[in-house]
Each structure stands twice: as structure tokens, then as C-alpha cells.
Design a protein that fits this description.
By secondary structure, this protein is an alpha+beta fold. It has one domain. Helix content is about 50%, strand content about 10%. It contains seven helices and four strands; from the N terminus they run αββααβαβααα. A four-stranded antiparallel sheet has the order 1-2-4-3. Helix 2 packs across helix 3.
Amino acid sequence: MTAPMERVADRILSIRGHRVMLDADLAELYGVATKRLNEAVRRNAARFPEDFMFRLMPDEAESLRSHYATSKGRGGRRYIPYAFTELGVAMLSSVLNSERAIQVNIAIMRAFSGCGSWPLPTKTSTADWMRWKGRLIGNSRSCSTPSGR
């Protein structure tokens, strides 16, 4: 099963000047629990240096929580999420070894490379975030690989 390009592109965020995907979004795409994805990463910590993956700062996590209006109480996240750069997502394919992981990883790599020219937002205000996300969603249909997929 291949993840649709729009579904993947919608989940690419800009944090600290890097295009990243959050652990929960990756886990959902890969069809595993976030806890299991993070366990696999911890077992292979040497494969994930800071330029591959980093933990959000509490204020960054709170900012994302307010943008997505997610619960921080019962049923919400109980820990601060990890953010995976394009390199970290590529490395995930070596620790999540399944056919689905391979197909999802291909789709994610295409989304990252096809949308590499999108500007990174420099402000974290809600208005800036919504404008940037609107452009991201509006442009997701134009993301393509050199072969036009």
C-alpha cells in the first residue's frame, strides 16, 4: 500500500529551519503505534544523530498542540514528540523492515524531494502557519518526481 502524495505532503512541517515529520504522523503512515516506532528508534539510537531526528522543545510542542487543537489531558500525548528530518525518515526504512514500510518510505522521500523548493516559514504565528499550510496543501498536487508520479 502506497501512501498518497497529498497525505504525506500534508504532514511535512517546518521546525527549526528543517522540513520534518513528527513521530506520530510517521507511525500512522507506517501502520504502527507511535510507541513502537519510537522503541525501534531507541534500539537503534546510533543511526539517528541530531541532524536525522530531534525532540521538540516544550514550547514547540505546545505551539503545535495549539495549531492542531489536540488534547493534552487524557487521551492526548503524554510526551514531547520527536521530529524526523528527511535523513531520519530515510533511516527509518532500515529499522522498520516491512513491505509497507518500504512503500511508505518511497512515498515520503518523493514528497520531500518533490516539495523541496517550498519556502520555509520564519514565523510561528498562527496566521503565518495557516498561510503556509494553505500553500502546502494547495501545492501538494504539483509535487512530483522527475518521472511525473
